[in-house]
Amino acid sequence: MIPPAIQMTGIDKRFGAVHANRAVDLTVTKGTVHGLIGENGAGKSTLMSILYGFYAADAGSIAINGKPSLIRTSADAIHSGIGMVHQHFMLVETFTVVENVMLGAEGGMFTARGAAAVRSKLLELSQAYGMDVDPDAVVSDLAVGELQRVEILKALVKGADILILDEPTAVLTPTEVDNLFVLLRRLASEGKTVIIVTHKLKEIMAVTDRVSVMRRGEMVGTVETAGTSPADLAELMVGRRVVLTVEKGPARPGEVVLAVEDLCVRDARGTLRLDHVSLSVKAGEIVGIAGVSGNGQSELLEAIAGIRKPSSGRVSLKGEALDCGGTDDPRTLRAKGLRHVPEDRHRMGLVKPFAAAESAMLGCSDEERFGKGLFLDRDLVMADCAAKMAAFDVRPADPGLRTALFSGGNQQKIVLAREIERDPQLLLIGQPTRGVDIGAIEFIHKRIIALRDAGKAILLVSTELDEVLALSDRVLVMCGGKITGERLPDQTNEQDMGLLMAGVTSEQPKEAA
Amino acid sequence: MSARPAPLWLTAGVVPLVNVAVAFLAAGLVIALIGENPLEALQIMLRGALGSQYGLGYTLYYTTSFIFTGLAVAVAFHAGHFNIGGEGQALMGGLGAALVALSLPFLPWPILLPLCVLGAALAGAAWVLIPAYLQAYRGSHIVITTIMFNFLAATLLVYLLVGPMKMAGSMAPETAKFVPGATLPLMNQMAAWFGLTLTRTPLNLSFVFAILAAITVWVLIWRTRLGYAIRTVGANPDAAVYAGISPARITVIALLISGGLAGLMATNEILGVQGRLINEFTAGAGFVGIAVALMGRGHPFGIVLAALLFGVLYQGGAELAFDKPKITREMIIVIQGFVILFAGALEMMFADRIAALYQRFAGQPVSA
Questions:
Q1: Is A17–B364 a contact, with Cβ atoms under 8 angstroms apart?
Q2: Residues B30 and B121 in one domain
Q3: Residues B306 and B339 both lie in one domain
Q4: CB 3.0–4.6 Å: which of A16, A22, A251, A391 could bond B3 by disulfide?
Q5: Interface test with A, best of B242, B299, B357 (most A CBs within 10 A)
Q6: Which residue in A has a C-alpha nearest to residue B352's C-alpha?
Q7: CA-to-CA distance for A340 and B85, rounded, in angstroms?
Q8: Is there a single domain that holds both residue B16 and residue B112?
Q9: pLDDT digits (tens, 9 = 90+) for A55-70
């Protein structure tokens, strides 16, 4: 019998008081695609980091192809035939593909020989697996999907038989995801072993042969993908039954609350990031913006929220023209009933070293309810936060605890509570559930729907296509700073959306492609 | 997946104490190397600084200056900026106080004295206005500009003290004496009002101002909306923009407060002790303030304690240099250097290890 490609036995790892891996066993069969799922903090990253030599396990052993292996550094891992493709690409933007792949294998003082060797290897591999990559292209000119192929090639050139991919689909369009999966299946059929770490159940179902589920540092089960369902996997991950679908009634749209006309935003270099975008959101409806991240969604939200000054265009709230980024800064806009849950709560939505109560009044610290005159009343601030925590089931419900110590889901609930509870006319939400565990996703989705049913206007941006389709009453798709199409969620499908996300509009397919 | 944080008594109490102990250990080693007994040296130092009314008076007099400059660095630090121009701002504080004292000598003291103190604060604040504006709106780095302004302040003061402001007929670079109504009473004078007898030392009313300033800064930073805005800008400028707080505006305000506090250092030396404006009166207090603020972890209470430690080092060091000819004043600077190195620059060297030890023996396990 062929020994398993990877056999991790009894892996145990603590970080201070945190028990990140508890006696974890993982067996991966050679020539398969193996999924590893779990919520944030379940220990999957730790386990993979141990396999790749970033951390040493406190206890346990690893055998690669039946051979006991001591993996102390990533050099050991590479030597054992393990390659890793990180979520954030580790490429030098100004280098060509060959130069990037060559990193760490320059082959002596002069690079010509090494480069030639890498080039022939690169061509051989890309032919063998049908990966079309120009070896002389400069990395900064490549699309995201191509960058990922370069990363995979980099690992293969170094002799990887086992590929670990960490959240590989986070930045890809649906079409690119499909291409990636075809490639992964092909790699597996050629005898390579692939481990894919993700939190997207649908992708696990689509590409893996077998899937291992982790929860709270423990391995709770390994199942054949064919014999399971997303609902079963979710239950394994969370430890209880979870509703994966969003239940909502039909929208009853009222008057127009937000109207955006010909909005343009340029970045510091003068590049057009938002290109004549027009849209409207009515009271009692959720308008979703789908698209691959970095296609102008952030600029759109920030411009409407008064954070970024648009170069041209008009924005109005309930008929009143706004001077976003000028006289209407985030503070005055809040007073007018425009609330904003930012896309990246760590960068903008919270102040991590602050106590939760202080983060929970970000943007509202001037309001009378927090104290008199120039002063803040600590008791009022704490009480206000405690009330928010109770209403949104934040755990632990401790307003004095440092913001950074809450889990992603609980941090997001704090932001949401802060922005929703002041009765907004319009709520902008970016990435409502990024880095949020499944249990909290359910809760957050319900709150958003409830807000809509209370007659509020909601503009939602998410790079999770399923989320946009599930929550929105209307969906707009953005690509390259433009709106490429509008669909009703029940009258579209993934292929259709994928084309729009790639910038192929049904009206003018040739020109945009 | 974060570990339970170490409690305050550990991070703010044990860690600095360990740092200071290591600094003294290193200094002791150097003293042993030059053939003196480190324990004896420590004893002389502590006795010299704290063992008599005289010593204590001097220690607290030094402490006063360090509290002001330490608070100045801390306020800027909370807004995310490193104001190392305390030296120049303090010099200008002295100029501000002197200008008021010399130009309005006819005013009765209840009006003149507060005006002199205000003059010190305003002049200190004014001296940071240009660096603050350049940092906030033009992105010129505050560290560079405030260093340059230290030199400018020093040269400006020399120019004024040998030129326009020099006392007629004097050979020294100094102004005329202020009227008595423009000077702060010494502590022993104030004690005498209540029938107490204290040894005469330079310790004066500004020590009380320093403590009040520390309390005010605490209230400002942790109990006001402005303090909240300052801390938000310092901890996460993007979140500040999102909240509608202008980082540029808050930067300027925080730095003006910082400069004002540095300027107040002059109340100790100029209004309290000299009674006239002299050259180079700051004697490095602006730079010691950086170490004090780091060691006090930006908290006014910690700053008062750290300032006291440096007061002890200054006064005790002077006594030590006097008693032990082999230990020169330069040696004392070496010892102070060790304290700054271990308590300031290497502040976190032991912090992680101490926290890990704590987690091991006292930490409640937290589920991942």
A1: yes
A2: no
A3: no
A4: A16
A5: B242
A6: A16
A7: 39
A8: no
A9: 888 899 999 999 998 8
Worst-scoring range by mean pLDDT, A200-214, B20-34, B346-360? B346-360
Show residues of chain B in contact with A376, CB under 8 Å: 223-225, 227-228
The per-residue DSSP string of B162-221 comes to HTTTSPTT-SSSB-PPPPGGGSPPBHHHHHHHTT------S-BTHHHHHHHHHHHHHHHH
For the domain covering A6-238, report its CATH number: 3.40.50.300
Instruction: Nearest chain B residue to A363 by CA: give it.
Output: B243
User: What ipTM did this prediction achieve?
Assistant: 0.84
Torsion of CA B344, B348, B354, B359, to 10 degrees: 140
Nearest CB neighbour to B244, from listed A17, A349, A363: A363
Say whether pLDDT at B109 is over 50. yes
**A57 Cβ neighbours under 8 A, 6+ residues apart:** A11, A12, A13, A21, A50
pLDDT (mean) for A367-390: 94
- Which chain B positions have a beta carbon within 8 Å of A378's beta carbon? 223
* Contact criterion met (CB < 8 Å) for B231 and A374: no
Q: Is residue B212 included in any domain, yes or no?
A: yes
A334 has a chain B CB within 8 A of its CB: yes
Chain B CB within 8 Å of residue A17 CB: yes
* pLDDT at res. A512: 38
| Average pLDDT of chain A to the nearest whole number | 89
Contact criterion met (CB < 8 Å) for B239 and A362: yes
Contact (CB<8Å) B239/A371: no
B197 and B307, same domain (yes or no): yes
Q: Which residues pair with A211 in a beta bridge?
A: A35, A223
What pLDDT digit, counting tens, does each position of A277-309 carry? 999 999 999 999 999 888 899 999 999 999 999
Distance of alpha carbon A109 from alpha carbon A113, whole angstroms:
10
Mean pLDDT of A114-136: 85
Could you give the CA distance from residue A228 to residue A218 in angstroms, rounded to a whole number? 20
Question: Measured between CA atoms, how close is B106 to chain A, in angstroms?
Answer: 37
Which DSSP state fits A27? E
Q: What is the DSSP track for A438-473? A: HHHHHHHHHHHHHHHHTT-EEEEE-S-HHHHHHH-S
Instruction: Give CA–CA dist A231/B150, Å, rounded.
Output: 67
A365 to chain B, any CB pair closer than 8 A? The answer is yes
Q: Is the pTM of this model over 0.80?
A: yes
| Domain topology for A256-352+419-501 | Rossmann fold (3.40.50)
Helix, coil or strand: residue A60: strand
Q: What is the pLDDT of residues B13-30, one digit of tens each?
A: 788 788 888 888 998 999
Range of the domain at B331: 9-36+324-358
Distance of alpha carbon A258 from alpha carbon A374, whole angstroms: 34
Asked if the structure places residue B1 within a domain, the reply is: no
Structure tokens at A177: 């995801």
Q: How far apart (Å, rounded) are the C-alpha atoms in residues A42 and A280?
A: 40
Residue B236 and residue B210 in one domain = yes
